[in-house]
Structures are given as structure tokens and as C-alpha cells.
Amino acid sequence: MKSPLVFVIAAMVTCIVAQDPYYVWPDVFNDEERDAFYYGQFPDDFKWSTATSSYQIEGAWDVEDKGESVWDTFAHEGTHVANGDTGDVACDSYNLYATDVQLIKNMGLSYYRFSLSWPRILPNGRPDSASADGLRYYNALINELLDNDINPQVTLYHWDLPQALEDEGGFLSDDFPQWFNDYATYCFEQFGDRVKFWITFNEPWIIAVLGYGDGVFAPGLNGIGDKVYNVSHNLILGHAMTYRTYDSTYRASQMGEIGITLNSDFVEPYDRSIPSDVEAASRSLRFGLGWYANPIFKNGDYPDIMKEKIARKSAAQGLASSRLPEFTEEEKNMIKGTYDFFGLNHYTTVYCVDSDQEDLSNPPSYYKDGDVNQWKDSSWPSTGSSWLHVVPWGIRRLATWIRDEYGQDIPIYVTENGVSTKDVAELNDEIRTKYYTSYINEILKAIRIDNVNVKGYTAWSLMDNFEWAAGYTERFGLHYVDFSDPERPRTPKASANAYAQIVADNGFNSGSTVTGALCLLVASTLLALINAFVPSTCFEF
Ligand SMILES: *[C@@H]1O[C@H](CO)[C@@H](O)[C@H](O)[C@H]1NC(C)=O
User: Fold this and answer.
1) For 460-491, how does the pLDDT look when each residue is reduced to its tens digit (9 = 90+)?
2) Which amino acid residue places its CA nearest to atom 13 of ligand 1?
3) Which of 286, 482, 488, 503 could join 290 in a cystine, given CB atoms 3.0 to 4.6 angstroms apart?
4) Phi/psi at 479 (5° precision)
5) Is the pLDDT at 540 greater than 50, yes or no?
6) Nearest Cα to 114, choosing from 232, 172, 195?
7) pTM assigned to the model
8) Taking 60 as the threshold, does the pLDDT of residue 514 lie above it?
């Protein structure tokens, strides 16, 4: 008779030899060239982080002498946010910050990206109003992080402008760059001895387009054809002025890094064999990401295609000058090169085609200015947010696009990436685990295969929080927060453990090794059992 040993050996050989490519989303993305899982490690000094922002988590909106922000005003109006939700309490991190630090530590992270609330620090927006309590709070948070070996990555502006400054024109005021520079200077003075990683602005595109264009975010203004360009102009000047201040006055003694965080979808040509689709995709990226990246990372000025199109359209629309403001030569020189790194927030991808003809119609709109039609493919996995479909390969293509457009040497930090689920108590969040696994894997490919200079990764978000106009209906957290409980308890989701494992492994250990080891273990156990229980006459060794 045949020895069972033959079967055991056959099983061992089969499971070691079989190395079918592994796909995280096999039903949707299973192109062997593009989507197969890539095993390997990140560079030794890769920086793993997670992120939040002040208005989304802190609460304590009117504690002590804190000033109101545009989001306090906007949410309190009651009509702009789902369910009339507000950030009045949010995750109560103003009181629970030490708990947050433990969650970060438990995931094995050495970095935490959070933002400072400008009106908590300077209630009227200006240094003459500096709040002792604001200073106390952020000193306590920063010190708690450092005591736990976690490095702070601080965003100076994550959308909560002091209402007092909005009342004077906000980002539309020509004084805005100076206001921001003065606020940032105060922060460098107070925190720069311990904070070595500064981000000036989070997502200028959202600030301009959703806040001053569509009006769906604070301060809720409608200027999609014009204000968006003025806002962005002053923001870029404020960023550049602040970078120069850090560079000339604080860098030598504080030795930190400072940059900006830009958000971008990837824009995939619907048909790569049609040149006008390919051209439209580049144009869309230049009108979105390039609006800010071109001045800062390239030449101090807006992309040529933006300048040309908006000038031509403005004239056709009967305006005396372009809706896109111009930088002076002096300003261009000040803006160019104001970065130590490229902060990138990325979540999803869109398809695009050329719109076929230049749209010169009134009323003007940023959305029409690029002459690109774009949409999301309904076959891409959906999430808790209508704008967010899962497209892992998009982040790799975007990273290589940035490398090609702005230069190989620029260090890129992914400062946000993550996925939402609807407002349900789902601790076994398989979609988030798969999202992180696949997107982080694509970044590993960008580093190892495409040679893109990605230095760090930041998961959005540490915990469920106030998701802007969606209120508490969309959850992005690695930790579940119970917003109906006054204690705001945080509970790790499965994705927190999955992320911690990736961080602990600094990447993805080879599946064939793991599978092979498991197979050997199973096979040797079987063999031992057979030896123990099967009469020895069955064997003919
Ligand atoms: C916006 O910029 C344009 C072009 O530079 C300028 O003419 C206009 O006065 C600005 N509007 C505001 C509100 O700043």
C-alpha cells in the first residue's frame, strides 16, 4: 500500500511551489502587472504616522478665552452640516489628549500629525490676543507625545480660521499673508524647540474651492469663478512668507523641516491610446495639484496652461483682467522653492476625457476652466463617502506623476490616506484593513520599483471624528468613538491592529515564506500524528 508520507510530502511541495499572485481586491483589481501584491520592506528610516485636526477632535469650542473659528460659526448656523452636528465636543481631545497619545503608542507609531487651532492660540487671530490656556494645552499635548517617544508633526492651519479675521476678509484680504506669518512666528517661538516638522496649510484646494467657491465648507462663500483664485493667491503668498521666516530666523536654532500639504485625486485618462485624454489628465492635475505645486515646487508661478486658459476665458467673459491674479517677479522669487518636503493627501482616483471644446461661457467657474470631463467608475469599490472610491493603483501613479512633474529629489510625505465607513459600530472593518494594505503596498511599489522618494506615510485618521459637512455620519477612524457617550470612549478597530502590524514589519513579509513555514508546520504535525497513531506496519521507510 501507498505510504501516507507520500501525500504529506506532495502537500508540502505543492504549497511551497504554488505562488499565485495575491490580489487584495481580486474581484475588481486583478491585473497581474498592475495589482499583484508586492512583498518587501520600506526603508529603515521610513516615518509611520497617523493624523487628526483640531476642529475635528478637540471640542471645548468656547473654553477659557478661546476665540471662535469659522467652523464654529458655520456649524452653529445649523443648516450646513448633516444632522446639525457640530464640533462643540467632538472627540473631546481637549480633555482626552493623553488617551489619544496612548492609542498612537499602542500602534507602535513614532509620529503624530495634528493641527493647532489658530483661535485657541490667538483668540482674535493676532499675537496681541495670545491665550495662556491655548499655550498650556498645546504644550501639554506636545510634551505628552515626546514623553512617549512620539514626534509631533504640526499643521499650522487645518481650516479653523479665527472668525475675527474672516470678518476682515479672511483669505480674500491682502493682509492675509502677514496675519498667517505672524501667527506662525508665534508658534515657532513657542513650540519650535520641540516641533521639528511643520506643515503650513492643509489642502489649499479644499479651503479655496469648497470654502470660498461652492460654499459647502466654512466660511460658506460662493465665488467658484473668481474668489477661489484670490484665496489661493493669498494662501500661496502666506505659505511662502512663512517658509522664509522659518528659514531665515528659526531653522538654524530649531533645525526642523517645513512644507505644505496638497490634496489630489489621481486623474486617469479614460483611454490611454487617445492623446487628448492623456493631455486632459495632465491638464486636470495641473489645474488642481499644480495650482499650488507649480509655484512652490517648480517656478514661482501658476502652470502656463492655467494662465493661458483663464486669461482667454476672462476676456471672452467680458472682464478687463484675468480672474487668475498675477505674481510679481519679486513674489515669484520669494515663492519658488519654499519647501523642505511635499506633503500629499490622497484618497481616490477619477477617469477623465477632454471636453472637446474650450468653454468660454458665463458664468465663469473653476470647474469649467480646465475643459476636462471627469467621473468615478461605478465598478470601483464604494465606501462611506460618495466621493471616495477605492482605487489602490492611483496613489502609485500619482506619486510617479509628482516625481516626473516636480523632480526626483523632492521628499514626499503621504500626510493623509484612508477610507470612511458609514455611521455604524463596525469594529471588524475589513474594508479599511484592505484599503490600508493595498494603498500602502502601492506606495511600497512606488519606492522600490519606481524609485519615488516617499519618506513617510500617515493614516487618516487616528479615530472617528467630525467629518466636516458630513458631521458624524462618516467615520474614518482606526479607532471607533462612541459619540453618544459623554466619555467618548475609543475602541481599536481591526484596521488599527492591521496597520500596527504593517508598521511593526516595516512593510510586508514575504507571503511565500510565511505560507511555506505554515505548510511545513502543518505537514510535520501530520507526520508526527501519523507516526504516533498509525500502526508502524503501514510504513515501509
Ligand atoms: C481678485 O483678483 C483679481 C485679479 O488680480 C482682482 O482684480 C480682484 O480685485 C481681486 N478680488 C478680491 C476680492 O480680492
Assistant:
1) 999 999 999 999 999 999 999 999 999 999 99
2) 172
3) 286
4) -120, 140
5) no
6) 195
7) 0.93
8) no
Provide the total of helices (H) and of strands (E) in the chain, helices listed first. Answer: 21, 17
Contact between residue 438 and residue 25 where contact means Cβ atoms under 8 Å apart: yes
Radius of gyration in angstroms for the set of CA atoms belonging to the chain, rounded to a whole number:
26
* Residue 325 Cβ contacting ligand 1 at under 6 Å: yes
The alpha carbon of 220 and the centre of ligand 1 are apart by a number of angstroms equal to 19
Average pLDDT over residues 116-139: 98
Q: Which residue minimizes the CA distance to atom 10 of ligand 1? A: 230
Cα 234 to ligand 1 centre (Å): 11
Same domain, 166 and 20: no
Identified catalytic residue from 268, 416, 467, 474: 416
- At residue 2 the predicted structure's pLDDT band, cuts being 50, 70 and 90, is very low
One domain, residues 370 and 519: no
Tell how far the Cα of 210 is from the centroid of ligand 1, in angstroms. 19
Q: Is the pLDDT of residue 59 over 80?
A: yes
Residue 454 CB: number of other CB atoms within 10 A?
Answer: 25
Report the distance separating Cα 499 and Cα 507, nearest Å: 10
**Ligand 1, atom nearest to 173 Cα:** 14
Mean pLDDT of 198-218: 99
Please answer whether residues 524 and 11 qualify as being in contact, where contact means their C-beta atoms are separated by less than 8 angstroms: no
- Tally of domains in the chain: 2
Is residue 370 within 8 A of residue 284, CB to CB? The reply is yes
Query: Nearest residue CA, atom 11 of ligand 1?
Result: 230
CATH number of domain containing 173: 3.20.20.80
Say whether both 518 and 384 belong to one domain: no
Share of the chain above pLDDT 70, in %: 91
Q: How confident is the model at residue 40 (pLDDT cuts 50, 70, 90)?
A: very high
**Same domain membership, residue 455 and residue 328:** yes
Looking at the structure, tell me whether residues 390 and 525 fall in a common domain. Answer: no
Domain membership flag for residue 486: yes
Q: Which atom of ligand 1 is nearest to the CA of 323?
A: 4
Beta strands in 347-477, from DSSP E residues, in sequence order: 349-354, 372-375, 412-416, 421-422, 454-460, 474-475
82 C-alpha vs ligand 1 centroid, how far in Å? 33
Mean pLDDT for 51-74 is 99
Residue 416 annotated among the catalytic residues of the structure: yes
Cα–Cα dist 215/221, whole Å? 5
Residue 531 has pLDDT above 70, yes or no: no
> Which of 118, 124, 131 is closest to 167 using CA atoms?
124
How large is the average pLDDT for residues 346-364?
97
Are 419 and 526 in the same domain?
A: no
Question: Hey, what's the cell of 270?
Answer: 479614460
How far apart (Å, rounded) are the C-alpha atoms in residues 294 and 406?
8
CB of 230 shorter than 6 A to ligand 1: yes
Are 6 and 89 in a shared domain?
no
A 10 A CB-CB count for 89 gives: 17
Give the whole-angstrom CA distance, residue 56 versus residue 506: 29
112 and 13, same domain (yes or no) = no
Q: Which of 371, 397, 385, 366 is nearest to 267 (CA)?
A: 397
